[in-house]
Write a structure and sequence with these properties.
Chain lengths: ~190, ~575
């Protein structure tokens, strides 16, 4: 499976504080600077206070760095990295609802799914739902093959990415955590317990 | 010590060294106003007449002192009235903290009376903002707000405090020690290879020029920039907000750049082989057409905001860092240079300009803005803090009032906010009580915020207002003359009698219509300890030259006419 980035697409990864309004700040930044975004995904990380974003940009690395520099200015954004040339894993997940009301469709669908890391996750009398996971290009290739059968509905998560090897950025502290610690230290110094 | 949220706000302001705040009360901020009474001896509240005035006063205070200015407003309309001031401060990197009341937390989202999503509204025009939802986080949030406002590239921060948080009682613990934010770490110093690369470019340059911006003063790098210029003999062009970074009578300072900059500065930039951009951001008013901007020059760009580097102009060496720190890394390795031919060339261009100078023309019978401003400069010994509004008088101030000291020209550069000048001057006076302050404003802009005459009277603020009255929105009229075949749509103004208006506010005033009256009027204004207003009735259809039309090439200037040419 091809692991390099799709041509002319660059990925920006950002760690952000999981606080109310943070997504709004980021969306507002993109709109205000007229940044053109291909896809944006947000999800939780293994740390409850921190979310991780993957932003796909249909532009060169210079443009992605512009976005990264502006993102980094937001107080709630902990770290930003442009994943361009470094080796990384990327995944896109698609749920595709296709027609399934005759034997020919059913057979073709099963045959295509066998050749891809795709699963039929729901089958009904008229439609079936397929789950396909892979790189953006691979998912697109799969969709192209399925399309003639008749796509009824589709949703994609957008790409998520992670650099290979050592972890590229992380933090063990958050704003709230630091605030709590500072207040506790201040209180202790004054002989009080919070 | 158990305190209410309102008292905690006051305690935090005191700990930040705040002694004056500008505001306007209302329902959702009333608990905080009630708490103010107890702190009255240490924290002075200035009652403005419109919240926009409060935001500009906080801004003027911040620009004059370098400290954080504070403004306070109630929820809803009070808070939305701050918006223009916040946007102004954002564009010019001015550190202010705005505290707004909000409806009680249970009412948020219910379209309650005077409810506005203020953090939502101000999100793109503040450096950061907060909605406080827990009184135990209030003190920390206040400290963080001040830290963010004044550090890195400064800017406005808004703290929205619901009424029930202001009323809530908690044990007050002030967070001691420095604020650490995981996602906020303004760049400080440069890498060694960046310094070496910059030095190599400086060493090779034959026609270098320094572009001196506002960041020099924010970083306090005036001495370092001067050393760089003097040791490597590099001429210095100033941005509008960079005026004062170096004394303007310094032999290497060649004047303002950009749309209404000196021809010599703009020509020098276009002919240069190296631009050294210090604490400036290549605004379109500075560059003109980017495609033809300084095409033969390499560029060194030093700015504290990484996102400014390569934003408008590609830097050969881009250094994100604190200017003073970076220059102190660079200076020990900088060798002396001389650029005789280059400096000589620029001096020739300067001489051509002085022949065209309006001050050297005979203009009997009319009062010209340039003369008024230059006379104010002469009569104040060139040592006042001038605060301008926006338009022709602003550009002519920049051209005809040379500033010797940093932070003595306060003006809305990035946003170009009409109505800024007069309230900002009041704020500046509170920050710098021993300085002579002149608000130089146009008849248009002044009328946008003239309600603050009452504030100036109530507080007896010693600000001298110079209204440059041409009965036009002058700069718009100039564009209409040049680009819209003199169709003066919505620019002529029927004005009030400004002197009668001042009388109504009990403010001493004079009207000047002849040049020989200026000296008396300025002396009169300076003799009074309190606000004064001088109306200068000037030529109606004056032009500001040189001018680079918007989007034109920087060298494509409409020059000042020579005597007899106009």
């Amino acid at each position: 499976m091809a692991q390099q980035a799709t041509a002319n697409k660059v990925t920006v990864v950002a760690l952000v504080e999981n606080e109310p309004g943070v997504l709004n700040r980021i969306a507002s930044l993109f709109r205000r600077r007229a940044f053109n975004i291909d896809s944006l995904t947000v999800g939780r990380t293994h740390k409850p206070d921190i979310s991780r974003m993957t932003i796909r940009v249909d532009a060169g690395p210079e443009y992605a760095r512009k976005i990264a520099n502006n993102l980094q200015k937001l107080v709630n954004v902990i770290d930003v990295r442009v994943i361009d040339n470094e080796p990384h894993i990327e995944r896109d997940l698609a749920l595709i609802k296709v027609r399934n009301d005759d034997a020919h469709s059913r057979n073709t669908l099963t045959e295509i799914c066998d050749r891809y890391p795709a699963r039929i996750v729901d089958v009904g009398p008229h439609v079936a739902i397929i789950e396909m996971v892979g790189t953006e290009t691979f998912v697109e290739k799969f969709i192209d093959e399925v399309r003639p059968i008749g796509i009824v509905e589709m949703i994609r998560t957008g790409v998520v990415s992670m650099g290979r090897g050592t972890r590229i950025h992380d933090t063990s502290v958050t704003r709230r955590g630091l605030a709590r610690a500072t207040l506790q230290a201040s209180a202790a110094r004054n002989g009080r317990i919070v | 010590m158990r305190l209410t949220g309102s008292e905690i706000i006051m305690e935090c302001l005191l700990r930040e060294g705040v002694h004056v705040m500008f505001g306007y009360p209302g329902g959702a901020i009333l608990p905080t106003y009630d708490a103010m009474a107890k702190y009255d001896d240490r924290l002075h509240h200035v009652l403005v007449r419109h919240e926009q005035g409060a935001s500009h006063m906080a801004d003027g205070y911040a620009r004059a002192t370098g400290e954080v200015g504070v403004c306070i407003a109630t929820s809803g309309p009070g808070a939305t009235n701050l918006v223009t001031g916040l946007a102004t401060a954002m564009m010019d990197s001015s550190p202010i903290v705005a505290i707004t009341g909000q409806v009680p937390i249970p009412a948020i989202g219910s379209d309650a009376f005077q409810e506005t999503d203020v953090t939502g509204v101000t999100l793109p025009i503040t450096k950061h903002n907060y909605l406080v939802t827990d009184v135990d986080e209030l003190a920390y949030t206040m400290k963080e707000a001040f830290h963010i406002a004044r550090s890195g590239r400064p800017g406005p921060v808004l703290v929205d405090v619901p009424k029930d948080i202001q009323n809530a009682v908690t044990e007050f613990i002030y967070p001691e020690g420095p604020i650490i934010l995981p996602g906020y770490d303004p760049p400080a110093s440069a890498d060694k290879y960046e310094i070496d690369a910059a030095l190599r470019l400086i060493d090779r340059a034959e026609r270098p020029i320094i572009l001196a911006g506002h960041g020099i003063m924010m970083s306090g790098a005036m001495q370092e920039v001067r050393e760089l210029a003097e040791r490597a003999q590099i001429p210095v062009a100033l941005t509008l907000l960079g005026k004062g970074a170096l004394p303007e009578d310094h032999p290497l300072v060649i004047g303002m750049m950009g749309m209404h900059g000196e021809a010599s500065s703009n020509l020098a930039i276009q002919e240069a082989d190296l631009l050294i951009a210090l604490g400036m951001r290549f605004d379109d008013r500075v560059t003109g057409n980017l495609k033809t901007y300084a095409v033969n020059a390499r560029k060194i760009h030093i700015d504290i905001d990484r996102s400014e580097i390569n934003k408008n102009v590609r830097a050969d060496v881009g250094i994100a860092g604190d200017l003073k720190t970076v220059l102190n890394q660079l200076l020990p390795k900088l060798e002396s240079k001389s650029h005789h031919d280059w400096i000589h060339q620029i001096r020739d261009w300067l001489e051509d300009s002085s022949e065209r100078d309006i001050l050297n023309h005979e203009t009997p019978g009319v009062l010209l803005t340039a003369q008024v401003i230059n006379d104010i400069w002469r009569l104040t010994g060139g040592d006042a803090i001038t605060v301008t509004d926006v338009g022709q008088h602003q550009m002519l101030e920049a051209q005809y009032y040379p500033h010797q000291r940093p932070s003595t020209l306060l003006t809305s550069g990035g946003l170009g906010t009409m109505g800024f000048g007069f309230p900002a001057a009041i704020g500046a006076k509170f920050g710098m009580p021993d300085e002579e302050i002149w608000a130089i404003v146009g008849d248009g802009g002044f009328q946008m915020t003239l309600c603050e005459l009452a504030t100036a009277r109530q507080e007896n603020v010693n600000v001298n207002i110079a209204i440059i009255n041409n009965h036009f929105l002058g700069m718009v009229r100039q564009w209409q003359e040049l680009f819209f075949e003199k169709r003066y749509q919505a620019t002529p103004m029927v004005n009030p009698d400004f002197c009668k208006l001042a009388d109504a506010y009990d403010i001493p005033n004079r009207r000047v219509t002849q040049r020989d009256e200026i000296e008396d009027a300025v002396a009169f204004a300076r003799s009074i300890d309190g606000p004064t207003l001088i109306e200068f009735v000037v030529e109606k259809e004056e032009m500001v030259y040189p001018m680079v039309p918007a989007g034109a090439d920087l060298h494509d200037m409409k020059r000042r006419p020579k005597p007899g040419e106009q």
